[in-house]
Structures are given as C-alpha cells and as structure tokens.
Design a protein that fits this description.
The structure holds two protein chains of two kinds. Chain A contains three helices and nine strands; from the N terminus they run ααβββββββββα. In chain A, strand 6 and strand 7 form a beta hairpin. The longest helix of chain A is centred in the N-terminal third of the chain and has 15 residues. In chain B, about 10% of the residues lie in helices and about 40% in strands. In chain B, a hairpin with a 2-residue loop joins strand 32 and strand 33. In chain B, helix 1 runs antiparallel to helix 5. The radius of gyration of chain B is 24 Å and the shape is globular. The chains are: A alpha+beta, B mainly beta. Chains A and B meet through helix 1 and helix 2 of A and helix 1, strand 22, strand 23, strand 25 and strand 26 of B.
Chain lengths: ~190, ~575
C-alpha cells in the first residue's frame, strides 16, 4: 500500500477534532481521541501509561433546575464467572455507579438516581449506598440514560420530580453515517 | 452546542482534507495487486448486512499483503475426504502419531481445501488419565512451517510447541516428537502456534480431556458431548483469502460468517427426556466470542479451563472467548426441540445501531420416553468442591498484596489509509466492552500485521511485546494486573493466555471474584482492569499473548521465564 504524505490527513483530523471538542456530545470523546490528535500514527502508547486505575467515568450534565450541579456515572463489569456478563439475548450488563458531587439540597427532598431506556418506556431506580449521594445498580440495556431527580422520598418507585443531572451511556454516541458525510449520496431509506 | 449537521460537515471536510492515503485500483492498474502465484487475489470481504462497500476513495484498495489460500493449486478431488474426529483413549506411556495434512472438507453443500490432523475434523480427541504422559510423534504434511501447542497444559517447556520460544518450526515434511504430560484434570486443546490465523482457522485443532482418578470428581451425567465452536469466512468464490506474509483483518480479528460446531454447520442430537448431558465447550475461533444459549434447558456451570469452580452454579448462558473452555451440565426436562444458539447484540457502525443476531448452532431433540437412569437429583445439587477450595486456600493470603507486574493492552496504527483513521476515530466514540461481530469488515480487511501493531506494555518498564521478558522463580505467586486501555485507536477485548502455568482471576474492575476456578485464558473487556494471581509452578521460558489469532500475528505477545527453584537454569 502506498502511503501519501500525512500532512493533509492530519490537518483534516485536527479540524474534525477541534469542532468535535466544541460540542457537548464530544466531552468524553475528546479524551478518547487525545492520543490520535497528538500523534500522526494514533499511537495509543503516548497516553495511559500506568493507567490501570482508570475507571470509565462520565460526567453528568446539570439541567436548568440545578445550575452548577455536578455529578458522574461510572461503568464497570459486574462479577461473572465468564469475565463478561451478558443476558440470553446478548445485552451487556454494566455495574452503574452514580455519584453526586454538587447539588443544592432543598429541605425535605431527596435525590434519587435512575436509569432509563432512551425511549423512556422503562426506568429503574439505582440504590443509594448507605444513605450517601452515591447510587449503584446493574443494567443490561444497549443504550441508556442516567439521571438524578429530586423526589419527596428516597423510596419512590417511579420518577416524578424535577430532573437535576443527566447523562448518556457511551453507546449513545453511535451515529448513522447513511445520508451524511462521506456517505452523503447513500439514501437512508435504502438502508433502514 | 453545535448542530449535528455542522459536525457532519466537519467529517466531510476532514475526509476531503485527508485524502485516502492509500493505494487504489487505479494506482495499481496493470499490477497484479495482492495476487499470489496460484491466482488467488483480494476481493471485498462479505458483509453481514447491506452497506456501502467501502469508504469513498477506498474502493478497490487492497490489503498490503499478498492474498493467499493454502492448497489453491491442489486439485481437491485428489485429497482425502476429511472424516469426523475419533476419540482416542490413551494410557501413560502410549504413543500417538499425529499428522497435519490437506483434506477435502464438505461444509453444507460446498467443498473446500482445508487442513486436518490425521485427516479428521476436528483433530482426534485425546482422552487420558490425570498424571499420565504420552508421546506424540508429529509430522507436518502441510505447505507451511508449523508446530503443535498443547494449550493449557503444565507440560515440560521444550514441548510447548511455540516456534521462536520453545522450538524451531517444524518445516513441511519434517517431524517433531512431543512428550505431553497431564498434571491437571480438565479440558484442553491443541492447535498450531505458527500462523495460527491460517492453520487453526483451516481446521488444525483438537480437544484433550484429562480424567481425574476420583470417580466422583464430577457429578454423574447420562452422556458427554465435546463441542468445539468455530467460524469460517466464506463468500461465493470460496474461502476468503489470508495474507501470505502476515495476517489480514488485524483490527477485529477474522470473524467467519459460517459458524461451526465440531466443523459442521449444526450439531444435532436426540436423547431421552430428563437426560443430563455434560457439554465440554471449547472456543477455537480466531476472534469470535460466543454467547451460548440453550433456551428452555437447565444449565449448570461446573468447570473452567484448568479446574472445577469452587461452587457449581446455575447459569442461563455461557460466554466463551477464543481459547477458553467451560464444562456445563445440561438437563433437558421436557420433550421438544431445544436450539443451541449464539445470541448477541451485534453492532452496525454504518447505521450506528445495535441489532439482535441469533445463529442456531445446534438442535437437541428430546423424546417423550424417559431415560434409563435419572440424574435429576444429582443435577439439582449444586456441589461445593472442597478439593478446589482447599487448593485455592493456599493462595488466598496473597490476594490482597500489592501488584507485582502490570500489563496495559493497546494498539498502534501505522500506515493505514488516513480517511479510514478519521472514520475510525469517530467510530471509537463508542467502544463496546466486547466486539461480538465484525462491525467494520471493510476497514478490518485493510488492517494487517504490517500496518497495525497490537501491544502488551509493561507499565513499570515501558517495554512492549517481545521486548518484555519477565523473570520469576518456581514457586513464586505473582499478582498480575491487566488493564485494557480504552483510550486507543481501536480498543477491543483480549483473551489473554499464559502458557505453562495456571492462574486465578481474583478481581474484576475492583470487585473480588466470589467463585474461583483455575484458568489459563481470561478475556479482558475494553476499559476493564483484571487482577490475576498466577502460580509460577512450571519452569521454562514461556509465552503470554492475546488469543485472537490476528492480534497475536500483529505483535501481541511477550515472554516470561520461570527459573527452577533449585537455581539451575
């Protein structure tokens, strides 16, 4: 294979990354791609040296009900004799931990962390750990939303109160290429 | 927040600026690009779902290696028809003649030129008593150098079958004598350790079962089945070519589109109602991880690579990465037909979506008539294996101590087409913990062992792959931490195999594992950190590597030495 000068390709990639960096969607993506943006050979070795304690942590974003609010979700593998836990349909199961770092607490209310499908047809409550602002549970959906709501009681079974923090599973970043970008001439109707 | 349209425009701009950075068919007009002397040439790989064939600008781009199919110049009608494997029961001191050669294989209604051990598919199943030793006189009748690796056995180092580490390759026409000892009861397998991306894929593999002298080592069952799970990449023209000088499809590994059980498209068995079957499962695929489901049947997980679990447990499915083995007892309580499936959530990167993919690997027909012996009660009992617990107890005090060695798993891209690199960067916005399917067959096709390097990195020294040479002493108990780096060009899971020793996976992402079994291969999902406790019990110079065949060929291996406790080299 003949390799052309990488100058043009690097410029293009940097332009792309710079634009992505300005989007909310790409907040973690910029981190993921930082190696590529620094190294023409996308050398993973330039980053992550000694990074064994590198849990998958994703920021939760505050809503208009919680300006300045901060929190995170951490994804990890649940224990499994196989090293990987999936269900009979192949859905990956994650151990989801939500941590609230900063929220203005109103008296008489509680924070509750939830995980929901993108269609919002199903949602489950994560369990608070020892009454702290840390919540944990397992979820086996391909894509999911994580959010923290303010509720009258920590034991509510259904989400009812205002949403304060939101987040999206990394799988929510997947995007179709049909009809867009380099596949601009491909009709979405032909592939869906 | 910038609208998606703007981001897509950026992608267009990036790709336009990037150019392709690759050789195209136009640039190679008049050349026999990637065609070997037998006329085998590159063609686009099959795709699981309809999609544009290739990124704009990359249409007609070939891998940077010569297309190669072993035996392409042979007349298949002159080759022996492969026959189904034999079970060879051997005793201490017995000798087995094992020959690797060309065979004619019929899969479905198509015929292919492939390899076989002793003309069989899979190779002979060798059944031996624990603590026995056999002699295997191996002869190479294929067209490539090779060697036989006895996967998982704590055997003498000189017989481990790793060219460049424990022996020279066995050249075509040559022989090698292996003395194979079996210290541990369990399920093992043998396969080549030289271009296994080709040789193993074409059928060179077989099982070994080592029986404990204790008749109650495993619970009673009505019957046993040995299932070797595999896949093969086939299109209308036949077997999809390999790379002559090195491996292709090194990004994701070679995913086949024809799933196989014991070399056949479908495993079928008929049995009486209520029967309990013991399934000995081995994944011999180059890259595919299986999620095995037998819907409606009751499954009990009994053992893993090198031992039983501390406690038997009921499971609904079995996840099996390349080179791993599990022993699973299954009870079929009611009459009917049970499908053995590989049930996954596949990813379509072009559409940006998950989709459910179910392949039927087998059918179990259960008759109305009950079996002669009913082991239902024994099956319902979840045994606690005190022998395994006692064995592991000797090591439990080591679980909490500091890590001795740490490996980081990552990848380095070389001269890949730059537009492919740009799109890969976008695709990597999401990385699944496990790639269950080849979600990007076109880009995978262009990645080779020349332009992509998979890396094991010792984080304490910064050394990589074969520059790593760990030193241990026999009797050492080594705590290893393995981190699968997600911040890379294309993260992927890695089934890590350590030769000649046994280990426990004691912690996954900071959570202690509560039911242990001795293993030789552990799959590390993307972004995860696993702690292993390895008993350095077997002297010699050994290899450790990822067992995705194409990752191994693309560099992902290292060496470690266990010196004898008496100090002699």
């Amino acid at each position: 294979m003949v390799m052309r000068t990488p100058k043009g390709s690097l410029t293009g990639l940097l332009v792309l990354l710079a634009i992505l960096a300005r989007t909310g969607l790409a907040e973690e993506a910029v981190v993921e791609l930082s190696g590529a943006s620094h190294d023409p050979l996308c050398d993973g070795s330039r980053i992550g040296f000694g990074a064994s304690l590198d849990p998958q942590i994703y920021s939760l974003q505050p809503t208009q009900h919680a300006p300045g609010g901060r929190g995170s979700m951490t994804l990890a593998q649940p224990s499994s004799p196989f090293g990987i836990l999936v269900d009979v349909d192949g859905h990956q199961t994650y151990r989801v931990t939500v941590q609230i770092d900063q929220l203005r607490r109103r008296s008489g209310t509680s924070y509750v962390a939830w995980v929901a499908t993108p269609e919002l047809d199903k949602h489950v409550r994560l369990e608070a750990i020892d009454g702290s602002d840390r919540f944990e549970g397992s979820i086996g959906w391909n894509q999911f939303l994580v959010f923290v709501s303010e509720e009258a009681s920590p034991d509510v079974e259904k989400w009812d109160g205002p949403i304060l923090l939101t987040g999206l599973s990394p799988s929510g970043r997947m995007h179709t290429m049909a009809g867009h970008g380099p596949f601009d001439d491909v009709s979405c109707a032909d592939v869906y | 927040m910038i609208a998606p349209r703007v981001r897509l425009a950026a992608l267009v701009l990036a790709l336009a600026l990037a150019g392709t950075g690759a050789a195209t068919s136009q640039e190679h007009a008049g050349h026999q690009m990637g065609v070997d002397s037998t006329g085998v040439g590159w063609r686009m790989p099959p795709q699981p779902r309809p999609s544009p064939m290739m990124l704009p600008g990359l249409m007609g781009t070939f891998p940077d290696l010569t297309a190669f199919l072993p035996g392409a110049d042979l007349d298949p009608t002159t080759l022996p028809d492969a026959v189904f494997r034999e079970i060879v029961e051997m005793s201490d001191g017995d000798t087995l003649r094992l020959e690797a050669g060309f065979v004619r294989r019929t899969i479905g209604n198509r015929t292919f030129t492939m390899y076989g051990f002793n003309g069989q598919y899979p190779g002979p199943m060798i059944r031996v008593p624990q603590r026995s030793e056999i002699v295997v006189l191996f002869t190479n009748h294929i067209d490539l150098p090779t060697a036989v690796h006895w996967h998982g056995l704590r055997l003498d180092n000189q017989y481990d079958g790793v060219p460049g580490v424990t022996q020279d390759p066995v050249e075509p026409g040559e022989s090698f004598l292996y003395r194979v000892r079996f210290p541990d009861a369990g399920l093992y397998w043998y396969h080549p350790h030289h271009r296994e991306d080709i040789q193993q894929d074409l059928g060179l593999y077989g099982n070994m079962l080592v029986d404990s002298p204790d008749p109650d080592y495993l619970g009673p069952v009505n019957a046993e089945d040995f299932l070797m799970l595999d896949d093969l990449l086939i299109d209308d023209a036949g077997l999809f070519p390999y790379g002559r000088e090195g491996a292709v499809q090194t990004l994701m590994g070679r995913f086949g589109n024809q799933l196989l059980v014991n070399g056949e498209p479908r495993w079928e068995v008929t049995l009486p109602r209520g029967e309990v079957r013991r399934l000995y499962l081995t994944n011999v695929a180059n890259s595919r991880t299986f999620n095995l489901v037998l819907k409606g049947a009751e499954l009990k997980l009994v053992g893993a690579d090198v031992s039983k679990f501390e406690r038997e447990r009921v499971v609904e499915n079995v996840v099996l990465a390349p080179a791993q083995r599990y022993i699973v007892d299954v009870r079929f309580g009611t009459p009917g037909t049970y499908a053995l499936t590989n049930s996954i959530q596949a990813i379509d990167h072009f559409r940006g979506e998950f989709y459910s993919s179910v392949d039927t690997l087998g059918l179990v027909t259960v008759l109305e008539t009950p079996g002669a012996i009913d082991y239902s009660a024994e099956f319902a009992t979840l045994r606690e294996n005190t022998d395994v617990i006692a064995d592991i107890d000797r090591f439990r005090s080591e679980f909490g101590r500091p890590v001795d060695r740490e490996l980081e798993l990552t990848v380095r891209a070389g001269a890949l087409p730059s537009s492919m690199v740009a799109v890969m960067a976008l695709d990597t916005l999401y990385f699944p913990p496990v790639e269950w399917n080849d979600a990007m067959p076109m880009m995978n096709y262009l990645a080779t062992s020349k332009n992509l390097t998979w890396i094991l990195r010792d984080t304490q020294t910064g050394l990589e792959n074969r520059d790593i040479e760990w030193k241990f002493t026999e009797g050492d108990v080594v705590k290893l931490r393995i981190h699968n780096q997600r911040r890379s060009f294309h993260p992927m899971q890695h089934p890590m195999h350590f030769h000649g020793q046994r280990f426990l996976v004691i912690e996954m992402d900071g959570i202690p594992v509560d039911n242990l079994a001795w293993k030789d291969t552990a799959v590390i999902p993307v972004g995860s950190t696993f702690d292993l406790l390895m008993e350095a019990s077997n002297p010699g110079r050994w290899m450790a590597h990822c067992h995705i065949a194409e990752h191994l060929e693309a560099g992902m291996s290292m060496v470690f030495t266990v010196d004898p406790a008496n100090g002699e080299p």
